[in-house]
Model the fold of this input.
Amino acid sequence: MPEDGGAVAGLTAAVAAVWADVLRVAEVGDDDEFSALGGDVRTASRVVALTNQWLGANLTLRQLFLHRTPARLAAALHAEGVRVREVGPSAAGAPAGEWERFWDSTYRFSARRRDGFNTAGWYDRRALGAMPEAHMREWVGTTAERLRSLRPRHVLEIGCGLGLIMMPMLEHVERYEGTDISTEAVRGLREHLAGHPHGARAAVRRGDALEVAAGTSGEHDLVLLNSVVQYFPDLAHLEEVVAGLTRGDGVVFLGDLLHRGLHRPMHVAQVVEQFPDSAPVRRVRTATEVSLAGDAPLLVGPDELRRLVARAAPGWDCDLLVRRGTHRTEMNRFRFDAVLSRGRHPNSDAPVRPLSWPGNPGGVAEVLATLVRPDDERVVIRSVPDARTHACVRLTRALDEAPEDLPLAELRDGLAPAAAVDPETLWETGHRLGHGVAVAPAREPGLVDVALLRGGDDWAAAALLRAPGPGGEDC
Done:
């Protein structure tokens, strides 16, 4: 086959794989039409985003509907200089499940970086392309920093992918075992580890979460599932995994959990950007429902998770923290982490002074200096408005209650300004004042609870928030 013909064939296979994964069909032919396979505007957005992420392309919705078939679209992409990396045949014995197939295709066709910073599968739903590298590096960096603060020596990661979290952890641990449902991920990560200076510390094998959880025997002091739980089928599955992983005495880290109470506000925040100020509320509501219908990950609320852990792992503590980061992204605004442990930082009998955040706080340092007395060692501040999410939660409530013909501009104008605080500012200020700091999702979406422990570390501060504040159930 001529060189160009082979390149186009590879692109065609990649395009067909994206369509099959998004449209959930078993097979897509080179000349199958997108609309005939059930494709519509909603699924088209995800097809465009994944194609751009996998192939480094700049595909648009217009091009997708213009070219209509994998063969014609691949030819157009090739003419624009897009190339697919050279791939061999699919790994033998590759599984056929929906997520297994998706990740096998993702890792098979996505470009690889020699430095190991492989962000395959991550895309920006707003820009319909790859996530900005600065955002991904911050996400990886803050995750690794949080994990390293637990001082693990023997790590088990379930859902390790191509090693995005493993790479910055390897030099700090004695042993790191990674597992993944994707045979392609296992193969690709093994190839990279063969040339890594600390590769001998790592082992990688295929396995799903339930299989791995059932086979653990407590030899790891940290078990990590980061940005994995959202792919589980239901909370019963998560509960079974947690029960299996908590038979030993190590720490279980559930990272990047999608907050149930913030899921709709996240979609509202993205949808309203698409409409002019004159758009009526009913159009925004309809678009929000369409957006939600195309995004059905496993969600969990903070109290919901606490109850699940209490059932699955009696006697274990569940410490929650919001995600860190200065870039305001989907990952740090609408997700949170949970650390499950037994006997770490047990609550003492020392009194905790509960405080309320003032309605119009001004500067964070001034507020903390006013609220926290010099002799306060343990302070908990409840229901602090989170600057990353509070506005979109308020907008969502207003949208749900407004008359359907109300223009979007009037809806926004009707929202009185509300003071809110960025969690990063709370961490920075608390540390500067000599406190261990923990910032956790509060019971009410859009708010956070804050713990300050004079002279302590952040994990000891997090233990002060184990008893949730007053309020109702998760939204």
Remarks:
- Residues 52 and 58 are 6 Å apart (CA to CA).
- The chain has three domains: 2-80, 132-259+300-343, 344-386+421-474.
- Residues 91-96 have pLDDT under 50 and may be disordered.
- The radius of gyration is 24 Å.
